[in-house]
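hey can u check if this looks right to u? its 479 residues, i copy pasted from the old doc so theres a chance i mangled smth
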Amino acid sequence: MINLLIIDDEIEIGNFLSRLFTAKGYRVQVVNSGKEFFSINFSLQKFHAAMIDLKLPDVDGLTLLQQLKKFQPRCKAIIMTGYSTIKTAVEAIKFGASDYIEKPFDDIDLLEKQIDSLLEDNDKTAHETIKSIAHEIGFITGKSEKMEQLLKTAYKVAQKNVNVLIEGETGTGKEVLSRFIHHASPRSQESFIGVNCGAIPESLLESELFGHEKGAFTGATQQRKGLFSIASQGTLFLDEIAEASRSIQVKLLRVLETREFMPVGSDKIFRTNTRLIAATNEDLQEAVKNKKFREDLYYRLNVVHLTIPPLRERKEDIPYLIEHLLQRFPNSNITFSDDALAYLQRYDWPGNIRELANFVTRVVALTDSNQAVITPGDLPISYFAISSHPNIGRTISKKSEESELESYLHRWTNQVLTVFNQKEEISLEEILDQVKDLEAYVGKAFIMKTLKDVEGNRKEAAKRLQITMRKLRYLLNEK
């Protein structure tokens, strides 16, 4: 017989759940406080599942969850929560909860289905489903525990109709994670549409999001639907949300609060059922403090908060990522030696997966043979000699950095002088290309050194080098 533990301070709810699941043949025990929970002799009583309310008068549900997992690690747990505490419920998943459900229980059939599913031995099935969806959309996680936990949480969140905020450095794969959430959700057969809020001028972004009427502005020659209409039953991904203007933020807030919007130039109100996922490489909490981002909009977006770790914190995944990236070139049989992969795992990859993808593309393009094994000697010096992140265990000394730069400049100079002194015909275009390579290498070397000095703070590095962030990303091959 299934033993079910229910922890809720509302006696009516406890009695209701007890009757519901007793009728299904479960043995149910109800406790109404943390004190009653700690009076249970867990060495004698074994539970298959537990339903835990997040808010109790004498203790919070997260504490009870952790204690339950300590007493009985195999006991499945589902968190009961109100809308205002969904963010905490998602945190509970990270502490070992299998799922969460919102109160009040509007759909009893759904509640029963969740508990029945919880009691099935479906961990393996869920794991296989997660891997299958990730593989389908090209979201490679490798063996990183951080990424595995992130995907588990994202998979659980995908089933709920809540907004998600994804934070992470440039190039970490925020849009790919948002696609994973969409494909793992009940909306997977509907539209997924993404837009970069920082790449479109404010006047055009409003029209892009909400649509416009014919004649609403110069150039509006016909009526156009906005993304909130097109993706009404699907998912809308707003990348670089921190770049949205205050005016756009106000309009987004209204949509999130009322599910209503008005196209530009229209006096009609339209409704949308879009699921919103927003992403940023900035610290939105800091942006709120600096009055750059609306606090009320931040809390509306930040119902569920997911953070993608940078590549330097998951270097064990680099070989898997490279293997996946090489599959983009079906006519090539290029591989990397173990030594080459070891060197690449020493590098910090400040541009993250995007920089790694650019690097693999460059290697394939410059390799003469379609069947080659890339060794350390084939790698650009910068990818294993210059390291910037303060936490890396194999940080290269300033003297070594100077030595590598000096070595590169010496080789480059000798090559150019050799060509300059030869009496045969030369290709000036090739020489000028080498000059561009020199410029890129030296620029990147200075950036990496400065990033190391400022402990990876890109804004501070750009300020010290007197260049824009756009220029910094360009020189790091994050175009």
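The domain at 3-120 is CATH 3.40.50.2300 (Rossmann fold).
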